Amino acid sequence: MAPGWETVKNNCTVCHSAKFITLQRGDRDTWESMIRWMQKTQGLWQFPDNVETTILDYLSTHYPPGPPSRRANLPPRLMPKS
Ligand code: HEC
Questions:
Q1: Which pTM value belongs to this model?
Q2: Which portions of the sequence form the region Disordered (predicted)?
Q3: pLDDT tens digits, the chain, 82 residues: what are they?
Q4: Residue from 31, 34, 57 whose mutation best tests the ligand 1 pocket (most atoms within 8 A of CB)
Q5: pLDDT value for 66
Q6: 3-state DSSP assignment of residue 5
Q7: What is the Cα–Cα distance from 7 to 49, expressed in whole angstroms?
Q8: Residue closest by Cα to atom 43 of ligand 1
Q9: Which pick of 4, 35, 52, 71 has the fewest CB atoms within 10 Å?
Q10: Helix/strand/coil for 39
Q11: Ligand 1 mean position to 21 CA, how many Å?
Q12: Which ligand 1 atom is nearest residue 14's CA?
């Protein structure tokens, strides 16, 4: 919880769980393109500029680019013998 989280919660967890969001990482442009994609194809509404700024500030600050949320595949030496 940090400034802006309520705006994100109110606007971004209507159609899907917050997990969809917190599993993703990205810079501001990446987050903006995810929003544009939902607006174009998934029925997401337009936000007033100040609301969109709050959402993008929050997501790019707290979910910046980083290591992927899935662990890497196991190396062959750790796989069961076939
Ligand atoms: C109008 C409904 C709706 C709202 C509101 C909505 N989304 Fe989505 N979102 C979707 C749909 C539909 C999908 C695709 C679900 C699927 O692929 O099964 C999606 C997918 C996503 C994904 C996953 C994209 C991927 O590549 O896996 C993220 C991240 C996401 N939304 C973030 C957000 C954020 C951030 C907000 C708030 C700004 C938001 N969503 C608000 C409908 C919505």
A1: 0.86
A2: 62-82
A3: 899 999 999 999 999 999 999 989 999 999 999 999 999 999 999 999 999 999 999 999 999 998 766 778 889 899 998 7
A4: 34
A5: 85
A6: helix
A7: 13
A8: 15
A9: 71
A10: helix
A11: 7
A12: 5
pLDDT of residue 82: 74
Over the range 2-29, which residues count as b (16 or more CB within 10 Å of their CB) and which as e? eebeebbeebbeeeeeeeebeeebbeee
Which residue type sits at 73?
N
What span, in angstroms and rounded, lies between the C-alpha atoms of 52 and 67? Answer: 25
Q: How many CA atoms lie within 13 A of 69 on its CB side?
A: 11
Rounded to the nearest angstrom, the distance between the alpha carbon of 13 and the centre of ligand 1 is 8
